[in-house]
Amino acid sequence: MENLPQQPAAYRITHQLQDAKLTVYLAGEFGIRNLAAFVGDINRLLVAEQREISGIDLDFSGITYFDSAAALAVIRVREETPDKKIKFSFVNLNEEIRDIFSVINNKGIARRPTKAIKPREGILVQIGDTCFLLGRDFINMITFVGELIYALSYTIIHPRSLRSKDVLFYMKRAGVDGLPIVGLISVLMGLIMAFMSFLQLKQIGANIYVPSLVSFAMVKELGPLMTAILVAGRSGSAFAAEIGTMVVNEEVDALKTMGFDPIRFIAVPKVLAAMLVVPLLTLYADLFGVFGGLIVGVTGLDLTFNTYIVQSMKTIKVFDVVTSLIKAAVFAALIAGIGCQRGFQVRSGAQDVGKYTTSAVVSAIFMIVVADSIFAIMLHYVR
After folding, report:
1. Which residues contact 208 (CB under 8 A, 6 or more apart)?
2. Which of the four, 4, 118, 121, 216, has the lowest number of CB atoms within 10 Å?
3. First to last CA, the chain
4. What is the pLDDT averaged over residues 87-93?
5. Hey, what long-range contacts does 140-143 have (CB within 8 A, 24 or more apart)?
6. What is the rounded CA–CA span in Å between residue 116 and residue 211?
7. Around Cβ 345, how many Cβ atoms within 10 Å?
8. Using CA atoms, how far apart are residues 277 and 7, in angstroms rounded to an integer?
9. According to the model, what pLDDT value does residue 5 have?
10. Of 290 and 21, more confident
11. What pTM does this model have?
12. Which residues pair with 27 in a beta bridge?
């Protein structure tokens, strides 16, 4: 038997080599306090003797203290033996040490954790999942529409239940705060349409019809459409993010606990505010669009101010203005409703807030285009 030099006082490791089998005797205390020391000694011993041995026995008969950290370290030593062909055995384990080893799952320790691999889904499964999600989203939307209509009806019957200060606040945010960007976009659209139509109409000497084309396009289509898209980007996203944050902070749950209807308390003021200000923004956009065309007409088409205004008024009918306002109100209801519905769908975390805010804007713009197409077909036959 040989003693390893420079052993700590708490433990002792000796070994004996006989018939190509190395027996390592462990004595003393083996625990987390001297873990690194005895693991290093054992590893150095195995590296020094591995060329001459075919098996290793760890003898636990002399151990006075042994904890789970030491057991885990010994198992690691066995699993990471340089020569995998060497048979590694534990001998002379008392009942306490045997129980410690039984608690530790050797196979689980030996294996490295692997990342779960999600099986690739076929195209049919993906189509099915998409259809299922669309169907579920449609059901949620219809349910929310029903709840919103009920809440609006209740507010009309009981006007004192309406939070008028919130309506005014959201009218300012969705309307007054949006005037600069709506005016700028509308002027630019009027400038572009006037200039592009001039390039075509000048070939037949019909510059006089440029005011009619710009005014008709702005009032009938581009005014309500551009205003609705801008409101969807500004206010629809803000509604979704605000309600989503309230859901994450459990403020919506607190309202339910206090007996308030979250849709009546949160969504109704936003929807009413949007339906009131978006038609006004549409008139504002129509006016600035015509003004943008006027700039091109007076400066580049040799038209007088009076001629441009007269031609524009000949084209615009009261029916066109009224239908434009109706479309704007419908667009506003879609924007606010979708924004609120997406906000209530948030469940947890900032990631959900961003996800449903983006979904609110995309869904609102899509529904605006669909509704505008329906209006175009209906008004064609009504007129």
Report:
1. 303, 307, 311
2. 118
3. 110
4. 78
5. 140/341, 140/345, 141/341
6. 65
7. 20
8. 85
9. 44
10. 290
11. 0.67
12. 12, 62
**Alpha carbon 98 to its chain's center:** 51
Instruction: Let me know: does 338 contact 364? Beta carbons within 8 Å.
Output: yes
The ranges of the chain annotated as CATH 3.30.750.24 are 2-110
Residue with tokens 């989203």: 137
Q: How far apart are CA 290 and CA 320, in angstroms?
A: 15
Which residue reads 């196979």 in tokens?
Answer: 107
Residue 212's closest CA among 136, 140, 308, 334? 308
What CATH homologous superfamily does 2-110 map to? STAS domain (3.30.750.24)
pLDDT at residue 7 in the model: 46
Asked whether the beta carbons of 223 and 282 are under 8 A apart, the reply is: yes
HEC string for the chain: CEECCCCCCCEEEEEEEECCEEEEEEEEEECHHHHHHHHHHHHHHHHHHHHHCCEEEEEEEEEEEECHHHHHHHHHHHHCCCCCCCEEEEECCCHHHHHHHHHCCHHHHHCCCCCCCCCCCCHHHHHHHHHHHHHHHHHHHHHHHHHHHHHHHHHHHCHHHCCHHHHHHHHHHHCHHHHHHHHHHHHHHHHHHHHHHHHHHHHHCCHHHHHHHHHHHHHHHHHHHHHHHHHHHHHHHHHHHHHHHHHHCCHHHHHHHCCCCHHHHHHHHHHHHHHHHHHHHHHHHHHHHHHHHHHHHHHHCCCCHHHHHHHHHHHCCHHHHHHHHHHHHHHHHHHHHHHHHHHHHCCCHHHHHHHHHHHHHHHHHHHHHHHHHHHHHHHHHHC
Q: Position 69: which residue type? A: A
Query: Do you know the residue count of the chain?
Result: 383
**Torsions phi, psi of 350, nearest 5?**
-65, -30
Q: Checking DSSP bridges between strand 87-91 and strand 55-66, what pairing results, if any?
A: parallel
Instruction: For residue range 341-351, list pLDDT tens digits in order.
Output: 999 988 877 88
Q: Measured between alpha carbons, how far is 194 from 196 in angstroms, rounded to an integer? A: 6
CA distance 174 to 232: 10
Rounded distance between C-alpha atoms, residue 315 and residue 44, angstroms: 97
CB atoms within 10 A of CB 371: 18
